[in-house]
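OP here, attaching both records as promised.
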Amino acid sequence: MSNIFNVVLRMSITSTLVIFAVLALRLLLKKQAKALSYALWALVFIKLICPIAFETKTALVPPPLQNLVTSEEFTLRELTKDIGTRQGQHAPAQNIMDSTQRDSLIASGTHGNPINLKVMTSYLWFVVVCFLMAQSFLKLKMLSDKVKHSHYETENIYTSDAIDTPFILGLVHPKIYLPTQLAISDRKYIIKHEQIHIKRLDYIIKPLFLAVAILHWFNPLVWLSFSLMSRDMEMSCDEQVLNHFGCGIKKDYSLQLLAFAAQKKPCYSGTVLFGENAPESRIKNVLHYKKPTLLVVAVFVAVISFVGIGAFTRQKPVSVAPAPNENSVTAQSPAPSENSVTAQSPSINESTVTAKTLLYPTAADTTITRGYVGTYPAHDGIDLAGELGTDIYAAKSGTVTVSQLSETGDGNYIIIDHGDRMSTLYAHCSTLLVAEGDEVKSGQKIAEMGSSGSSTGNHLHFELTKDGVSLDPQKFF
C-alpha cells in the first residue's frame, strides 16, 4: 500500500508544474475559443496517471528545478531494468553480515523499519479514496434510479418527470435525458449540445477525470483542474453548437442557459449536465464567441507541443561506475591528512580529498536521480534510486558513529566516520545492519535501500562531508 501511495504522491508532485503551466496558458487564451483551453487539460490528465518520463540528453526543465520536482519520477529504463542483475555483484562474502549477526541486531532494536507515519498516511489515503469512490457510485446509482421510469422518445433520447435539467447518463450506451416540461421548440439546441458531448466522448472523459481527482484527493490543484476542465468542456461544446447553427442563435441559446441555471442539478459530479458550471461565464462566452484564426491554432499547437515535451521528458542522469576496491587508490594519490587544510583556509577545498577515495555505495546499475547542488535550493548529496532492499555498502572503512531509526527527515540512516575529519551519510534505508561503534570495512554491506523518512520512493541519499562541509560525492568514486 505504501508503494502505491508513493507512486500516486510522486505523480501528484510532478504534475504540479504542468497544472501551473496550463493555468498560465489558460489565462493567455482567455479571449480565445474554449476548445483550445479544453485541449490543454489532456496534458494534466495524462501526467496524473502516467509516472513515466522519457530520458533525453537535454530537457526543457532546468536541472535544479528538475531535481527539486521530478527527482523520484520513473523512467522507461528504470521500469524495464532487469532486477536480477542486482544480485551478487558486490562485496565479498566475508564482509557481508551473516544471519546470526543480523538476528542479534534485530533483537537489540538497531535494525528494521517499524510502521511509521508514512505507512499510516498511505492507509489513510486508501480509506479516503475508497470512501469517495463509494460515495460517487452511490450518487450515480441514485441518479440512475431516478430516471428508471423515463419515457423513450427517439434514438437515444428519453424524457423524465423526475429531473429538472438535461444530462447524459451511461458509458457503453450513453442516453440523453430531457425534462418532460421542456418545450419541443427548445429541444433542438440542447439535443445538439448533448450529441456533441457524446461524439467527443465527454461522457467518458469527465468521470475518468473525476476518478483521477479522487486518487489525488489530497492535492487541491487537481480538484481545481477538474472544476476548470469541466467548465472548459461545457464552453467548448457551446461553441460547437454555435458553429453548427450559426452565430445568429446566440441570444436564444443564452436564454436557455439562463433558464436552466437556477434548476436543481443531480448530485453526481461525473455526469455531463447542460446547465452546470458557471452559467454566467458560459453566457458571456457565447455572446463574445469568435472562431479562432488559423494563426492562433498554429501557435497553440506549437505551444502545447512545447509544454508536452517539457512535461514528459527529463535529462538523462549521469551513471557512475563503482570502483572495484580500495586498491584503486594509487600511490600518486595519497590519502588526505590534517595538514592539508591550513588555518588560512577555513572553507574546505575539494583538492584536499584524494580523488577516487570512495567506493560506490550501492549496486552498479542504480540510477542517480538527483545530483549534488551546492547553490540554493541546495542538495548536499546524491540520490541513488533502486529497488526496495537493494544492498548498501560502506564507501570507505571507518567507525559507525550513528545508526538511527527515524520516521521523519533522513529516515533510517547511518553515519560513518572515516578519520581525518571525513564522514559519509546513508539515508532513507529500510534496514540497518550495523550499530553505533561498529568498525566496518570498505565494501561491507551496512544497510538495505528503502523509502523511510521524508521520501517519495525507494532510494539512497548519500552524502560526503569533510571538515563539516559537504562535497559532491561523484567526484570521488
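Record two, same layout:
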Amino acid sequence: MFRILIILTVIIGGFSSFACAQRSTISGQIVDAQSGEYLISAHVFTDGLSVLGTTSNNYGFFSLEVPEGPVQISASFVGYNLWQKLIEVKEDTSFIIALEPIESFEEISIIGNKSGNRISTSIHSITPKMIQFLPTLAGEKGIIRLIQLLPGIQAGAEGTAGLVVRGGSPDQNLYLLDGCPLYNISHLYGFLSVFNEDAINSVNVIKGGYPARYGGRLSSVIDIRMKEGNLYKHEGSLSVGLISAKISANGPLINGKASYMFSSRRSYFDLFTSIPAWLSNTKTNKHISGYSLADLNGKVNFILSPKDRIYFSFYYGMDTYSEKRFSENDTVPLFWENHSKLKWGNTLASIRWNHTYSKKLFGNTQISWSKYNLISETGYLREEGQKEDWSKVGYQSEYYSRISEFALAKPLLHGTDELEFQTGG
C-alpha cells in the first residue's frame, strides 16, 4: 500500500510539473504607429518575477516563448513611448505592436543590476532619432563621422571617410545598403560619405562575432537600411547647404498598403567654377573645371498580406571631375580644345520578399545587383584654316574599370537568429 501511494504521488507531481511547464509563443512585428515603418532592434519583454525578452530583427519581426496564462507584455524603442498590455496566453498568438513617438524628452533615471549575460557585445545601433541630432559640417550630417567615434573604431587617413576597426584596414569592412554590398562609400575624395541621411532608417555596426554569411571581410559589417516611406500621409523636405542641396519625399501609394521613399542630393561646385569662364569676354585660353557629386535613393514597398511584404530598393551615386581648356582665334582661323573627365560611383538595386512561415520562422528572399564604375576620358581637337585649307587633328581615349555582383539570398530566421544560403558572382 505504501508503494502504491509513492507511485501515485510521483505521477501526480509529474502531471503538475507538465501543466506548469506549458508554454506558448507570441510573435509579430513592431512598427511606428504614425508611419507604419518597421522598427529594428526594438525590445519586447515580459514583466514579473521571471523576465523573458527578445529584440526585433532587421524586418521588425520578433518571436518569444512565454508561459501560458496572464502575461504582461512590454515593448520599447529609443524615442518612443513604452507599450504595455496584459495578454491572456492560451495558445500561440501573433499581433502587431505599434509604438507612438515621444514628442518631448524628460530626464530619465536608469537603476538596475549589472547583467552578466550580454550577447551583443560588439553591435552598435544608430536609430532614426539619433540621426536627426547628428552634427552637421557645411550643412551635411556625417554618419561615418559618428561611427568613427565608437569604441574600437577610428578614422583612416586624415580627411577620409574610411574606417579602421580594431587595427584593420578600411578595405576590410563590409558596407551593406538594404542588404546589397557597396564598394565605394565616399564623395569628394573622402570628405563626404555616400549615405544621404534623409533616406536612412537605421545603422547597425557589427565589430566582431558576426555570422559567417557576412563572409569576405575581416574587420566589421556596417548594415544600413533605408526608410520604407510613410503608409498614411505624404511628407517632404528640402534643404540647401554650402556644399549641396537635397530633396526628399515619401508617402502612401495605397493608403496603409503600399508606400514610396525618394531622396536626391547634388552639389553645385561645377556651377560656381564655370561661371567666371563663361562671363569672360576673351576667347583665348579659356579654362573651365568643375566637380559634382550626386546621390539618388529610392524605395517602394507593398504589403501583400499580414505575412507577406515586397520591397524594391535602388541607389545611384556618382562623382564627376571635368576640366576643359580651349581657345578660338578669328583673325587666324584656329580653334583648339583639350578636355578630360573622371567619373566614379555605385549603382545597386534589389527586390526582397518577406514572409512569416510560422510562429518562429521568418524568411527573407532577396535578389540583388551591385556595381562600381570608374571611367576616365581624355581628348584633344585642333581645327585650322578655311575651306580647302581647313585641317582637323585630334584624338579621344576612354578607360573603363568595373566590378559588379549579382546575388540570390534566402535567409530563414528562427526568432532573431539567421541562417543563410547565398550564391553570387
